[in-house]
Specification:
This protein has 230 residues and is an alpha+beta fold. It has 2 domains: 86 residues, no CATH class; 118 residues, Immunoglobulins (Immunoglobulin-like). Strands 5, 6, 7, 10 and 11 form a 5-stranded antiparallel sheet that branches. The N and C termini lie far apart (45 Å).
């Protein structure tokens, strides 16, 4: 069974309409690059309750409730305007903006990875570990991430309660619908703990497009890892 958050579709539609209009008219002067669109969409989605559905009936219900849909779209537009102000005042320095050259999205079938999430504990007291770096390896080397927002190695901070996350860059495929088993390695080398290597295997299926957005069915949860103090 697949569960879909209809709010993602509505927010992305409204945000893209606002940004496309700005690209055409240049009336407000904010950056319309791909990354700023994503940042604004995330800003809006984090401030709206999700709207899950499992079939087209959910969409039909929303479309039939005209007054609710109009109010919802108005709320999304208002939050998008707030998000644009926030993003414009805190641009990411490692992404292109305005007239700078923006990296083109790659073409062709891909084996898209899920987001990989897990948690690290101290085996002596079962408390979450912080202040360590967690690496994700592919073929013995650091796995490339989809963009600079995703760090590898991933530094675990105190306020994240031992949680790490990765989103590896997709692998190229000859055609869609192909199956591939990929082995990844989680590596931790810290002077306070015994070295750790944890292997995970993912079953991937090639798709036509390069996955740009994460959703609930694209998360792989790694079993809890326990570090042994030296």
């Amino acid at each position: 069974m697949r569960i879909h958050n209809l709010m993602e579709d509505m927010v992305l539609k409204v945000v893209n309409e606002i940004f496309d209009d700005e690209e055409a008219k240049k009336s407000m002067g904010f950056c319309t690059c791909h990354q700023c669109r994503l940042d604004v969409a995330c800003y809006v989605l984090n401030r709206l309750p999700p709207m899950y559905m499992i079939s087209s009936r959910g969409l039909a219900h929303i479309e039939s409730d005209y007054q609710h849909r109009v109010q919802l779209e108005a709320d999304i537009v208002a939050l998008a305007r707030e998000g644009i102000e926030q993003v414009s005042s805190a641009k990411r320095p490692h992404f292109p903006h305005q007239d700078e050259e923006e990296e083109e999205m790659p073409e062709g079938p891909f084996f898209n990875f899920p987001q990989i999430v897990g948690r690290i504990y101290n085996s002596s007291n079962f408390e979450p570990v912080c202040g360590i770096d967690v690496s994700l390896l592919l073929g013995g080397n650091l796995a490339k991430m989809v963009n600079p927002n995703w760090e590898n190695p991933y530094p675990i901070a105190e306020n994240t309660t031992g949680v790490y996350s990765f989103w590896p860059y997709p692998l190229g495929a000859d055609s869609r619908g192909l199956k591939k088993e990929v082995e990844l390695e989680i590596a931790i080398d810290d002077a306070r703990f015994e070295p750790l290597r944890h292997f995970i295997k993912l079953e991937l299926e090639s798709e036509d497009g390069f996955l740009q957005y994460l959703s609930g069915n694209r998360i792989f949860n790694v079993e809890d890892i326990y570090l042994v103090p030296r």
